[in-house]
Every structure is written in structure tokens, then in C-alpha cells.
Amino acid sequence: MSVxxxxxxxxxxxxxxxxxxxxxxxxxxxxIEERLDALGRGEGxxxxxxxxxxxxxxxxxxEAAAAARRRGTRVFEGAADPDEQFVPLGPLLxxxxxxxxxxxxxxxLRDLAxxxxxxxxxxxxxxxxxxxxxxxxPLLVVLDDLQWCDDLTLLTFHTLAAGLSSYPILWLVAxxxxxxxxxxxxxxxxxxxxxxxxxxxxxxxxxxxARITEDVLGAPPDPDVLRLAHRAEGVPQLLVxxxxxxxxxxxxIENGMARLSAGPTAPRQLPSVARRLDQLSDEAxxxxxxxxxxxxxxxxxLLAELLGESLAAxxxxxxxxxxxxxxAESGDRxxxxxDLIREAVEAGLPLPLRQALRQQAAGLPPGRxxxxxxxxxxxxxxxxxxxxxxxxxxxxxxxTAPGPAAERSLKALELIAADAPERPRxxxxxxxxxxxxxxxxxxxxxxxxxxxxxxxxxEDEALVRxxxxxxxxxxxxxxxxxxxxxxxxxxxxxxxxxGRLLAALAVGLSMSxxxxxxxxxxxxxxxxxxxxxxxxxxxTLTTVRSAVSFHHMDLTExxxxxxxxxxxxxxxxxxxxxxxxxxxxxxxxxxxxGRTAEAFAVAEEGxxxxxxxxxxxxxxxxxxxxxxxxxxxGRLAEARADCEAxxxxxxxxxxxxxxxxxxxxxxxxxxxxDDRKTAQAYAAEARRMRxxxxxxxxxxxxxMLALMxxxxxxxxxxxxxxDAVMTSPAEDRPAYAGLIDPADAPVLVRxxxxxxxxxxxxQAVAQAERRATLNPGLTFLAATAxxxxxxxxxxxxxxxxxxxxxxxxPRVLVxxxxxxxxxxxxxxxRRSEAVPYFETALALYARAGAERDVARVRRRLRAAxxxxxxxxxxxxxxxxxxxxxxxxxxxxxxxxxTNQQAAEQLSLSQHTVSSHLRRAFTKLDVTSRTELARLxxxxxxxx
Length: 943
Description:
mainly alpha, five-stranded parallel beta sheet, two-stranded antiparallel sheet, about 65% helix, about 5% strand, flat, disordered N terminus
């Protein structure tokens, strides 16, 4: 990938390389100036510029960039190109690395961009460099033609814009109006929800059309010229190109007026239309040219007859011409977006060809197909051969490039008849490719339609249900079980199909939390798959064996099986596996047992590989997994960012995997950061989860609601939320007290003691100690057991032992909790000895950004008659406790400004200023504005 390329773009209002004055856009420019004023005051944000092709989006962006530079604002400009949609991050990198004002460290960014396997680090570095640049002044980042951006650029744009929202960065993005790819539509919806402002570019008014006509022709137009100019219907690009084509031959200047020469004007070729035609495939270009020669509206059936193709063979070409904004749907017919576009296309065809096509079209009944309807839909022999070729290519690309593989598989489906015997196999192969590339809803509809149509043989139905079971795994555990069970029960299917369906059923049951049933099905699946010699099913079933061992608390065996499973899947290639990816389970297992560094390494490698290969679904699963690891490592802001990035998809429904990762993490982060509004939103999700068909989802919902109730000071309610979990069948009950993580055992003990539920507290401790005893090599499990025992017995010795065992543990929040509990026990009798424990816990919580925990430990220190200000590693040395936004508010308030005055100066709402100030008071351990002003003066003086 080249990161030094500068795209040469023709601005719509350019003629012969000379830019005409911008007319009729005063309101739009005023809006841009208003946003640049706000940017100068430190207020960033997103502005979305939208309009049809040729309306002047790029010109507005160019004017905005020029205005920003005049103000001294640093500007980065990038643009997507329809010919380079498969260059990941190309448009964004073009903007920040090209030109004289490239980001600092540009050489390192170029090296990362061109080095295989370094894209994850490139994203991290890019965010860091933008933060660094924004600290030195406001930035304008311009991204044109969003509709042509690759998925990674879209995800990176949204993630960076959200993560850098507190910095003075204005993101100005332009997108074509109308139909856009689903990934682009999802991005637009998300930035709208995030508060993006919209600037819709409409057609020019009559006065502006007259002014532009005068600019291009060099004199005011007479009525005939003006009528001709109005044929462009207010689209600046078409207007300028039309007038430019007429200027030399068809217009004269007489008595200071521009007039038409004698005779009607012939259709002219237009540069912008020629460029769009050149970007089409040969098939789509022929279709557009044929439609232009026919004239008016035209049916697809007529085009098929003229081109000698079947209707099915034209599907891709029709879609391409619609996406290019050349054609549009008009009822059951196709029409050109604009008469000038049709005339420009027609003008590029030789006259004899135009006449022949029109004569041929005139000799056919309107809309007549080549034969009867059935014959029209039946593919020609060459279509069948082409479908086979595309299917073979899709299979070859599936392991490394699922996006192109999915497109080939879809095109193959278009070329085969609805009743072709091989069609169900094509469908079964296409579903996982669509799912892997983020088109789950399209995959689901494809499979559901095949089943609803009926007439499938048992083997074909089995393969379609297997594909749907794989598709359902991340979204609906119960649906995955239903599809796999129905497929496995079909009579007369092959041993391979039955073995894979049973393996998928075992995975679904395991993920659903039905452990006993999963173990039983896995035994049968092993026998069936072994008889068929199916290594793919073996990889999946090895993962199930690992999960079963984990459920039985045999973690040594669980790790052994997880490593074997990952190795098998890697050797087979991920496209053949029934569980994508096996390494994800290995990462979760490592994290749950305290091997955080190993879990991070596996997760980051998974993200890197799946992003490189364009596997949207797998990348999302890895991001959700890493968010769990980041949470426990005390990197709360990064955990939230991963969750938001994983949410930036168009996958339908709540998603069970998201329930037990993303939503669980977001609630925990909200509780630690004292974000009550977000916590309440995810508590509402937890109540929905309580009624899910999968036991594990119900268990997670119960645990989330228990944590929420405990945070509200309602321990009795918290224990009541867990009743269903504690009374569920023993064989399916979580193998540890805290649902998803051994470190939750001390949390549950603390919660039960507050509610007076001593028996439940004792059960949690007994399970934690049994788990540690069964796995003596895992120090982390010994630490959680000691921590839980110390809380139950109110005994300092095990609490101090837990602190010691946690010392080398990278799980910051768990370690801080043990320090706080040990300090709390010491404070009752040996107050001075408690202080170091509280101070260390405070520093860890502050570094994590766990504001609620910071406030609680500060209260404990005050009770011990100690006031300490933490200096967490890696934060600003002057105001280490505060965010940049909080620091700005603190300084203004310390100068004596009211909340309303500070809000006006910072262009924030008064509510936001109050929120920043309230958090700052808590973090700085002050209770009044006077005390705050005194602290600011003290720090600024360097005392």
C-alpha cells in the first residue's frame, strides 16, 4: 500500500483547470465559518456534508480547508477513491501523511503502514499523534467521499472521532446522498447519534445559475442560454461542464450578451460522466451505454435482450450502475439520473451503433424478454461455467480474503437458476462468508429463504442449517442450538455433515451454559467425526472439551485442550472451522486464570490478523474479548473504546456474545467511573438478558443487576437478583461463585456479608478454595481464595496474604480491592499501618480512572486523618487526577467565573461544566470553590 499517493481530484466548479467563483453557497459557508469559530475556542466535533454527485461537496470541503488555513488551523485532507476501496486505511493515511504539514513521526507511521502485521500498532500510533498535534492547536481533518471508504477506514474514523472528542479536532466528512453501502450507513448513523452536525447541499437557485453562467461564458446570458443552463437542474458540476462544452462552438458574445449560435445544440460528452463510466466494469459500462442509446426509461428485460444476456447475468451490472449514480430506479424500469448524463453517454457512442440499437429496440415489444419467463431466468451454459469458476475462486480466497470471496460467491448465486440442484450448496458456502465480513442480516435472509422455499433434500438442508448455526453463534446461542439440533436430526445425511452439526450443537450448548448437555453431545460428535475423519469438527470439539474441563475446574487440562484446539484450527485455516476463532477461547481462558499478558498477546494478534483479512465478525469478537481483559487490567477508557468499536457494526439484534462481554464490560466500567446514566442503561439491558433462552446470558444478567443493586446500597436486593443463579441445576450452574471470573468470588462474599447471607458467602469461599486447591500452579486463584477467606472470617492474615499474592498480578482492580480490604481491616485497630495500603489502592484506582473507587478510598483516608494527593504514573504532572476538560473548567472557576460564565467561554453546556466541576472536586478532595482556588494557586506557584 502506498501512503505517499496524493489523489488528483477535479473540483466540480473547475473548468480547464481554473476554478470558478463559488456561487449560491453563502449559507453553507456561513455554517462552516461558525464551526471553525467554535474549533478556535477548543470545541471539536463532526460535520457531515451530504449531497448527490456533482452538487459541490468537494468544493465546500476545499473552501473549508482554505478558511481553516487562513486562521492558522492545521489541516489534513484525505479522500477515498472507488478504484482503491481495498486499500485499508488509505484515505485517512493519505490525509495525515501527505503534504508539508504531515503529522509528527510521519516516517514511523509510513513504516508501520507498509510493514505486514503492524496495522494494530498503526492505529494506536495514529491516535497518539493526533492527540499530540491537538495539544498544540486545533485540527481540521477532512475526509471526502466516505461512501467509497473501506471498512477499516470507517471503523478507525468513528473510533478516533469518539476517542478524541474532548480534543479540539473538527472532522469534516462528505458523503454522497442516497443509497450507500451498509457499513457506511452504520457509520453515518453512529456519528449522528454522537452529535454530528449535518450540512445538506441542495441544487442551486436561479440567481446562482445565472451568475455561474456569466462566470463561465464571460458575459451575462440571454434567455435562450439561460434556458439551456437550467437543463443542469442546479447541479454545479453538470452546469459548468455543459457550458464549457458550448463555449467555443455554440455561444457567441454580442452586444455584451452571451447568445446561442444558430441551430440546436447537439449532445456533448461531459468529463465527469466519462470518469464515472471509466470506473465501471465492462459489463456495467455496456449496460449503461445500451440504455443511453435506447433513450427514455427502459426495462431490464429489454436490456437483457439487446445485450444477449439472461436477466440474472445483469444483476451485478445494474447494481453497479445504480451505485455509480448514473442510473436510478423508476418504478419497474431504469432511468438516467439526469438527461444530461444520458446525452453525454450517448454522445460517446458511434452514430451507427446508436442507430442500430434504437432500431433493434424499436422492433421489440416493450419489456419483452428473449423467450418466456422461465427461459429468461434459466442461465445459459456459459453462465453455469462462470458460476463454477466464481465458486472455485471464492473457495480459494475464503481463508485470506473473505470480502472478495463473498462477492464472488454472491455473483455465482446470481448466475444459477433458482431450481438448480447445486444452489443449496452455493448458499451454504455463501452464508459464512457474508457473516465473516459483517453482513449477518443478509446471510440470515439468504439461509431463511432457502429453508422457506422448501424442496431441499436432507443433505442440502443439513448444510444450510449448519451454516445458519455457525452464523447464530455470536448472536443467539439458543438459535444456534436449534438449527444444529434440527440439522443433526435429519435422516440419511452424510457422516461428515452429521458430525459437524453435532460439533456445532456442542459449541452452542457450551456457550449457552448447558454444560452437561454439551458434554453428552460432544461424546457422540467425537465418534461420528472420527468415523468421517473430519479434522475441522475435531478442532471445534477440542474447544468444547476445554470448556468442559474448565467447568469441572481442571484448568491444566482446559489449557492443554485449548492450545491443541487453536493449533488444529490454525493448521486447517479459519474458513473451515466451525468456531471462529478457537484462539479466542484460549485468550478468555488465559485472562480468567490471571495470565493477562498471554491473553493480551493472543487477543492483539487475533485483532491484527482478522483486520488484515477483512473478517469483520471475528474482529468484533476479538474486540469484545479484549475489552474484558482491559477492564480487569484497569484500563477502563480503553475497555470502553473497544466496546464502542465493536458496536460500530450493522449486525442485527442484541447479540448473546455481546451480552456476556461488551454489555457486561460497559456496566462495570460505568460503575467504576461513577457514570450513573450509562450504568442504568446497561442495567436495563441486563433485565432483558434475565429472560433470555440461554442460561449463561440469564446468569450474566443476574450478576449485572446484583452489581447495580449493590452500587445503590441495596445488598438485600442484590442477593435476591442472584436467587435464580444459585438455585439453577447444579450441572449447569457456573463453576465459580461470580459467574464469569474467579476474581468475582471476593465481590460476592462482600455482597453476601452486607446482606447477612452468611451461607452464600461460605459457599463462595468454599468454591474459590476448591478451585485453588485443584490448580496449585495458578497463583491468581490462590490469591482470590485468600481474599475471599479473609473477608468471610474478617481475618487480616489471609487478606495480607492475598495482597502479597496479587503483587505481580497485572489485574489492577483486583489488586487495589485487596489492598483496600486489608487497609480497612487494619484501620479498625492500627490506623497508621492502614494508610500505606489505602494509598497504594488509591494510586491504582486513580491510574485506572475508577473515580467512584477513588472517592471511596479518599473517604477512608480522611477517616484515618490523612489527606493525600495521588501521583499516578503516566498522567500530567501538574494535574494528574484530572482530564484536560476538567482542568480547563477548574482553572476558570478558580479565577472566579460562575458555571454559566465558564460554560459560555468554553462553548459547553452549563450541565457539562457542573459535571466536570463535581468530578474535579471529588478527585482533588476539595469541598468548596475557595478551597479549589487555593489549591490552584498552590500548584501554579510550584510550592
